[in-house]
Each structure stands twice: as structure tokens, then as C-alpha cells.
Amino acid sequence: MNHETFAINPTSEGFDREAFKKEILSNLKVLYRKTLDTAAKQEVFQAVSLAVKDLIVDRWIATQKAYQKKDPKFVYYLSMEFLMGRALGNNLINLCCYKEVAEVLNEMGLDINVIEDQEPDAALGNGGLGRLAACFIESLSTLNYPVYGCGIRYKYGMFKQEIRDGYQVEVPDNWLENGNPFEMKRPEYVQTVKFGGYVRIEWDNERQRNRFIHDGYDAVHAIPYDIPVVGYGNNMVNALRIWDAQPVQEFNLASFDKGDYLQAVEQENLAKNIVEVLYPNDNHYSGKELRLKQQYFFVSASVQLAIQKYKETHSDLHKLPEKVCFQLNDTHPTVTVPELMRILLDEEGMEWDEAWEITTKCCAYTNHTIMAEALEKWPVDLFMRLLPRIYQIVQEINRRFLIQVEEKYPNQYNKIRSMAILYEGQVRMANMAIVAGFSVNGVARLHTEILKKRELRDFYEMMPEKFNNKTNGITQRRFLLHGNPLLAQWVSEKIGTDAWITDLSFIKNLEKYADDPKAQKEFMDIKYRNKLRLAEYVKAHNHIDIDPNSIFDVQVKRLHEYKRQLLNILHVMYLYNQLKANPNMDFYPTTFIFGAKAAAGYKRAKETIKLINSVADTINNDPSINSKIKVVFIENYRVSNAEIIFAASDVSEQISTASKEASGTGNMKFMLNGAVTLGTMDGANVEIVEEVGSENAFIFGMSSEEVMAYEANGGYHPSEIYHNDMDIKKILDQLVDGTFSHGDREMFREIYSSFLSPSYGRADQYFILKDFQSYAEAQARVNKAYQDKSRWAKMAILNTAKSGKFTSDRTIEEYVRDIWHLEKVQVEL
Ligand code: 26W
Questions:
Q1: What is the four-CA torsion angle of 39, 45, 50, 56, rounded to 10 degrees?
Q2: For residue 130, which atom of ligand 1 is closest to its CA?
């Protein structure tokens, strides 16, 4: 990476402390008619944020000026999800005045941590895919690239999780309750989005061709809100543009006759419903009409505005691909393809071939999963009813594509079956994205290879040039500099520079300290202090005491069967049995920490949460094991507490069934913070082990090839393991003998049955029993390794030192080089 041309500005010269202080006080006065001594914490947060916004807006305006001057190409990162977390702390970090503001607040008798804690997370995403989008736009800004993040301004984001009696309860996340101090409403960019109705064909005499006219539709207005995305120390501010829906006509009872009245109510309801809530499903397609409405709503608004903006300064739409790239974050925004075609054909009057040429040069697609249940396939009748004109265009795309398939593979029906966009009454969104996109990328090397060899084999054979890999990354500004200030400071001191903040490859210079006893001690002291911080959080939120001297073994991520939280908790049960049978066995005290939300309708996932909490309850209250094992389920896992958790972790549990986790990004956040991976050879774990060396990770379990071979043969027989392995038999039996359920033998019966006689699907689909002994053995190696303090410290330091590859800055430079072809823009203040 070349940073010479764009020297960063890590000092905050020009930051005027007194003016900042005054502005906070003035904001309190104007917003709330209050002074510092009477203002509530939330009000102080708002006042501080508004003062920060003032700093941001200067840079935002400067960025706009630079864009006007340079007319650069933009990437439009289209995503149903942006899991931003909190903004205040990171904005201060990227403005390079975090320390100064902390000091100013301190002088005013305020604690910056308390102020930051007043901010609700912007949780407009489920998990990895949404957080990746947030890291990407932050990296783009930091690297001086032009981007619009395009998404939906959900009224309710990811639900808040409460644990009651060990069960997950979902509570609405009213994140906009107190307003969002950083956002800017942009009513001047309102767009109209049309649903339903029918398509009329008229003869256009002038052009001597048919015209397609969409009539009888329901319309909604899309109003964008811009949230600033501040680059680190470079004065660049891009926008995350999220759309709100408003009825086209304000509802006005008096002025409507009966027909208008009903129409007005319907339009009002349509607008209200569309942006009401984020679908809390991760990796599971549900086929709900409202979800397709959400997709078309934000895509249509974003594409229309992109074209409008382009046309303000350009006359030739054929050159659109020189200025615009639409990156589709999974298939969710794939209606971008027919929507762009519609605009070019119906509104701009182009011929099909010209429109197709432009569209296919503007769209690129990222695949984030191979899980079959995540594939979006819309029923044709629903699709056609909601988007009649879009559907016609999809039909034509499909028709022309199938002619090509037929030409290349005459009479090979299997090719049509696998690649058709319209098939058996369904619109297959992935196929449309691949056919129309000029780039198809996976998110880790192994994942991309599996796509090419298996899931998308026929497409890869027909159009190999489209396929490429972009291994995911994470932003070190949030997950080290903000989340772990002690370690960040130490890294800078040790390597003698803070260049790692914008070029993480510098962090490799830590390697020379891996064997240094003094550095080892410092590193582990910092880890200890971070463990204390997490212990305080757990005490305050879970009322459980955990020992910061114990190993913190952590699995935090969405709850999903393929991620195998069940393997983890079954192993805890096994360890408990071992310790009870042999209280003096060699075992270093370990705290097993879980954090996970389950999709609201995902029964097995919710049962697993209950099991974890039940096992925790039994073990934590059993004095006979002397607190050697503690189990903690952290309620409401989200970006803000994740930052605290990663900093405090010793062991990073990345234990998905090999081949199932496309990449994982939590694994990278742990690594950066010096946690050692305990994992399978899946997703980006493969590349993590490659960087850090297999001697500095704990790898276990079947390979992806082995898993896929078993799957090809219809699975395996877990009952053989059950009957032959007495340790495993015991833990499974404990699921139904009441050991962890106060005598209730039915509570975990379904989990038990899933191994031996499932009511649906294959027995032990995710090979938990098959991998169990290998996992237990790896856990034992971890426990032993931790007891050698110096060896552990070395491994931990090396994990941080070798994490350079996993910055989202590297990922973004690869997208820019291979897909987006953007130029850096310099912003002068
Ligand atoms: C249609 C329902 C639905 C919702 C979300 C389907 C699929 C998704 C996402 C693709 C799920 C997701 O977050 N996938 C994760 O993406 C991360 C970023 O690339 C990867 O690191 C994770 O491995 C992958 O599970």
C-alpha cells in the first residue's frame, strides 16, 4: 500500500479546546434549555455529538468540493444491512481528536466512556455481512476513495436480546428514540418508487417501437438520510445514505372522496411498513413479500439517484460505467440489475443491447454464503404482482441468457436447470446477479474455491473470467484503536510508530518481541486489565463473578447450527463430568463465554441458548468444582460490547463445520487483539493459520473435503459414536435425564433426538459428534499451553503481529484494483 502521497494527519493541530467546550454548553442551552449541572447524560451525549458533527461537516463540505472538482468514479455499496455500532467514539478517533475531547470532557467533570455509553448502537444488520459493510465504508473513507453506502433507515434495527429464565426474549430496538445526532435528512433528493399495477404497451410512432407504461401502481416516496463516514486523519467524509419511506400524499381526511381515501390509507400503510424493521434472519431466506418490497424500495431509490447525479454533469449514459459501480452485497440488492435496465430502456429510451452493455459493466456481486437455505428464490407470482415491469425485464434477461446457454451447450438440459434465472416458478436472484454482473467474488480463498468447484461450477465453467476472491477484513480503527486503547498504545510504543493505524502491515514489527520476557509480561498485563474490564461488565450485566486469571474462552457470533455453539457447550458438559469424577485432574480454570442472538423463529438456535444458560446455572452453582469452570452467556451481543469482549479474550472459538463458514470476521478481530484461534480449517481460519503458523493456533476436526465427501454420501451414523464412546453417551444422556434442567427430561429432548433420530433432516447434520473427540483434544492442548505463561504470551503476541493481512484496508485495495477501479481523492480543508 502506498501512503506517501496521502500523508495522514495524526495530530489534531487546529483543534480548539475552548471553542469545543463552548459549543457543548451552547448546544445544551439551545437543545434543552439546560446547563451542564442539570443536563441528563443522554442530553450531554447529544450536545457533544452535535459539536463533533460541526467538525465533521467542515470536512464533509470539503469532500464534496473535491468531488465536484475531480468528478471521480463512485462505488455504490448496496446493502440491506450496515451494522455500524456506535458513531461518537469512532468519529473522534478518525478526526484524530479523541484524546483531546476526552480531556476537555474531563475538565468539564465528564467521563468520555460514560458519554459514549449513552449512544445506542446503530444495529441495522444481523451479523458478519452487515458489519463487513460498515468496515468497508470506513476503510474506503480512510483510503480516500469515493463511496456511497446505500441502505434502509429501519425504524427498528436488530432486536435487543433479553434473557429471561434462560430463554431469549426479543425486545424492539427503538434506536431513533432520542434522534440520531449525526444524520442529515436530505429531502431535496426524494425519489418515487412504484409497486404493483400493470404494464401497458403503446406504439411509439416517433421511435417506431413499443413503449412500456407502468400504470395503476402504488407509490411511495423515498427520503434519504446521510450519515457521515469519516476517514482517518485525511479530511474525507463519505455518506452512508439510508432511505426512509413516506406516503406520496400526506393523509388528509377532509379532501378525499371515498376512492382517494382508501388509496391514501393504503399508501400511508405501504410507506409505514416498508422501513419498519430489519429482518432478523441470518443465513435464512424467508420469502416474505415485505422483504422484496424493502429490496426494491432502497435499490430503486439508490439507482435513480445515482443516475440523476450522473446526468447533472454528464450527457452520455453509455459512459456510466466509467463513473459508477454498483456492488451488490449478497443477492439482497440484485433487483439493481432489472431496475437499471428499466431506467435505461423505459426512461432513457435505449435499445436492449445498449442498456445491457451498460448494466453489465456497472454491476458486481459478492457471495457471502453457500448455505442452501440462504438462497433467495422469489415465487414468480409474487414477484410479478409486486414488480410487473421489472419482472418482464427479468424474463427477457433470462430468455436471452438461455439462448447463450443453448448455443454453448446444445441439448444439455442440466446446464439450463442449474443456471436459468427463472426456473420452476421461481426467480433465482443469485443466478441473475452472476449473469448480469461483471464480477462474482467470494469472501475467503476456501469459500471462493468451493463456489468455483461446487455451488457455482457451471457458471464458473461458462464464465471463469468473472470469478475472483476477496478475503474479508476488519477495520483496526474500531477493533484495536477504539476497542483496545491499552494494546493500541503498546503497539505504537513497541514498533515506534502509529503508522499501523492506516497501514496494518506495520504491525508485523511486533514479531521481534514475541520471545522478549518484558514485552510478554506487558502484553499479558494489558490482557489482564482488559479481562478485568470485561469481568466488570459481566458483573454489572449478568451478576456473575468471573476470575480474570482464568482462561477466557470465547464464542461470540450469531447462533446457528453450522457455527456449532452446541459442540462448545457439549464439551463444557463433558469437562464438568471429568472434573466431577476427578477433582484433582490437571486443569487450568477456564471461563467459557458465549454471546449470540438467535433468529426469532429459529427453534433449535433458541433451544441452544437455553441449554447454554442451563448448563451455566448448574455449573456456576456447583461448589464441588471450585469455580474451575464458569460459563457466561452475555446478553444482547452487539458491536459495542464486542469491542470489549475481543480485547479481553484468550481463546477465539471458530468451530464451524468445515466448508460452511464463508469467511468469518470475528476470527480476525480476536486475532488482532491477541487471542489464539481454536478452530476448524474453515473460511478465513485457513488464511489465519497460514499467516500465524499452525504452531500458534489450535486446529481440529474434519477438513472441508471430508465433510463434503460425507455429505455426498448422505451423512454418517452418529449412533455408532454414541454407542461406542462412553463420554459422549453420557453427555447426550444428560440432555434427557434432567441433570441440567432440574429434573425436566423433555426440555432438551429435541436436541438429543437431532443426534440420534431427528424428526427432520439428517442425524447430526453438522458433524458435532464426529468432530467431538478432536475438539476435546484440542481444548486439552489449549489448557496445557496456557499453563506455560511464556509460551502463551508468545503465541498471543504473534497472533497480533501476524494479523496485518486481515485489515479491511487490504480488502478494499483489492476490490479497487480488480473490480471498482477507483481513484484516490485528496481533500484539503
Ligand atoms: C436472505 C436471508 C439472509 C440474510 C443474511 C441470507 C444471508 C445473509 C448473510 C449472507 C449472512 C451473513 O452475514 N453471512 C456472513 O457474511 C460474512 C461477511 O462476508 C462472512 O464472514 C460470514 O462467514 C458469513 O456467514
A1: 160
A2: 13
Query: Is there an atom of ligand 1 within 6 Å of 369 CB?
Result: yes
**Rounded Cα–Cα distance for residues 279 and 417 (Å):** 30
478 is catalytic: no
Specify the pLDDT at position 207: 87
Distance, CA of 530 to CA of 290 (rounded, Å): 43
Q: What is the pLDDT of residues 725-759, one digit of tens each?
A: 999 999 999 999 999 999 999 999 999 999 999 99
Cβ–ligand 1 distance for 557 under 6 Å, the answer no
608-629 tens-digit pLDDT = 999 999 999 999 999 999 889 9
**To test the ligand 1 pocket, which listed residue (283, 294, 561, 688) has its Cβ within 8 A of the most ligand atoms?**
283
Pocket test for ligand 1, best of 154, 158, 330 (most atoms within 8 A of CB): 330
Tell me which of 194, 669, 794, 802 is the catalytic residue: 669
Question: How many Å lie between the centroid of ligand 1 and the Cα of residue 470?
Answer: 15
The model carries a pTM of 0.97
Residue 253 has what pLDDT?
Answer: 57
Which CATH fold topology does 71-85+121-472+814-820 show?
Rossmann fold (3.40.50)
Which residue lies with its CA nearest to atom 13 of ligand 1? 129
Superfamily per CATH, domain 513-701+768-805:
Glycogen Phosphorylase B; (3.40.50.2000)
Rounded to the nearest angstrom, the distance between the alpha carbon of 669 and the centre of ligand 1 is: 17
326 Cβ contact partners less than 8 Å away, ≥ 6 residues apart = 75, 76, 78, 303, 306, 333, 336, 340, 362, 363, 364
Q: Annotate 445-466 with b (16+ C-beta within 10 A) or e (fewer).
A: bbbbebbbeebbebbbebbeeb
Measured CA to CA in angstroms, residue 550 lies from 322, 590, 627, 752 at distances of: 56, 5, 10, 31
Whole-number Å distance, alpha carbon 679 to ligand 1 midpoint, is 19
Mean pLDDT confidence for 704-730: 98
665 is catalytic: yes
Strand partners, 551: 590
Q: How confident is the model over 643-693, as pLDDT tens digits?
A: 999 999 999 999 999 999 999 999 999 999 999 999 999 999 999 999 999
Q: Is 442 in the pocket of ligand 1 (CB under 6 A)?
A: no
Task: Burial-class residue 403 by CB neighbours within 10 Å (0-12, 13-18, 19+).
Answer: exposed
Set of cell numbers at residue 474: 476488519
CB of residue 682 inside a 6 A radius of ligand 1: no
Give the C-alpha separation, 628 to 587, whole Å.
8
Q: Indicate if 417 belongs to the active site.
A: no
Residue pLDDT, tens place only, 513-534:
999 999 999 999 999 999 999 9
CB 285 within 8 A of CB 373: yes
Q: How far is the CA of 809 from the centre of ligand 1 (A)?
A: 20
**What are the backbone angles phi and psi of residue 767, rounded to the nearest 5°?**
60, 40
Given this model, what pLDDT does residue 251 score? Answer: 56
Place of cell 455449573: 619
The mean pLDDT value of the chain amounts to 96
Which atom of ligand 1 lies closest to the CA of 664? 21
Predicted confidence at residue 5, as pLDDT, reads 31
Q: Where are the beta strands (DSSP E) in 167-279?
A: 167-171, 184-185, 191-195, 198-204, 209-215, 218-230, 237-247
Span 257-280, average pLDDT = 84
Whether 368 sits among the annotated catalytic residues: the reply is: yes
CA distance 403 to 267: 40
Characterize 80-95 residue by residue with b for buried, 16 or more Cβ atoms within 10 angstroms of its Cβ, and e for exposed.
Answer: bbbbbbbbbbbbbbbb
Intervals of CATH 3.40.50.2000 along the chain: 71-85+121-472+814-820, 513-701+768-805
Catalytic residue at 531? no
- For residue 683 and ligand 1, the question of a CB distance below 6 A is answered with yes
Rounded CA-CA distance 799/797 in Å is 5
Q: CB-based contacts of 644: which residues, under 8 Å, 6+ apart? A: 483, 530, 533, 534, 537
